[in-house]
Amino acid sequence: QQRAALASARARVEQSRAALADLQAGARPEDLARAAAQVEQQRAQYEAAQSTQPYQAAVSRNQVREAQAQLSDARAAARQAHADADRMRQLYATGDVSAQQRDAAVARESQTNAQVKDRAAAVRATRAQAANTTDVTLPQNAAAALAAYHAAQEQYSALAAGPRPDQVRQAEGAVRAAQADVTAARVRLDETVVRAPAAGVVT
Predict the structure, then answer these.
(1) CA–CA distance, 78 with 90 (Å, rounded to integer)
(2) pTM above 0.85, yes or no
(3) What is the pLDDT of residues 167-185, one digit of tens each?
(4) Cβ-count burial 1-19 (b if 16+ within 10 Å, e if not)
(5) How far apart (Å, rounded) are the C-alpha atoms in residues 170 and 23?
(6) φ, ψ of residue 136 in degrees (nearest 5)
(7) Alpha-helical runs (H) found in the chain
(8) What is the residue-wise DSSP string for 102-147?
(9) Is CB count within 10 Å lower at the N or C end of the chain?
(10) Coil, strand or helix: which one is 10?
């Protein structure tokens, strides 16, 4: 068990030394290239989010206008159905049309009234959705894209600048701590070794 602990401590020394060496060497060219590409990608996404805002807002407005137009059509149909139903009621009262004809007109009146309610609800829902898109979703998307762009810029700048002194000190401290663990593990291992006071044969 103590030998395994010593081996593990030695492995941590090697790992911490490798991490320190990587830190001191700075960013590799391929890492910088990837970071630069990420900056360009995030910049493009931010610009796309900005440029699509007017289009998306226009789409939302068109959807509201379409819903309003459908409501207007439904109201016109309901007015006509109401007039037809009134006329059929009068004609039925004078015996000029059958009850079946009157009932069909009344049913059409009820149907168009229900359609008006449905279209009015659709207008309210479309307006709410358009307001949410224009006032919430689009600004949030643009803000998120801008934040990602700034984060990519900061990441590239950090790589290009190299390690900070405090990062190097922390890595050096990790090496020293790992070396101390090796020393402690070696001491514990030595304490488990039984040594005879003189050479001889154990019987």
Answers:
(1) 18
(2) no
(3) 767 887 887 888 888 888 8
(4) eeeebbeebbebbeebbee
(5) 11
(6) -120, -65
(7) 2-25, 29-93, 99-132, 138-161, 165-191
(8) HHHHHHHHHHHHHHHHHHHHHHHHHHHHHHHIIIIIHHHHHHHHHH
(9) C
(10) helix
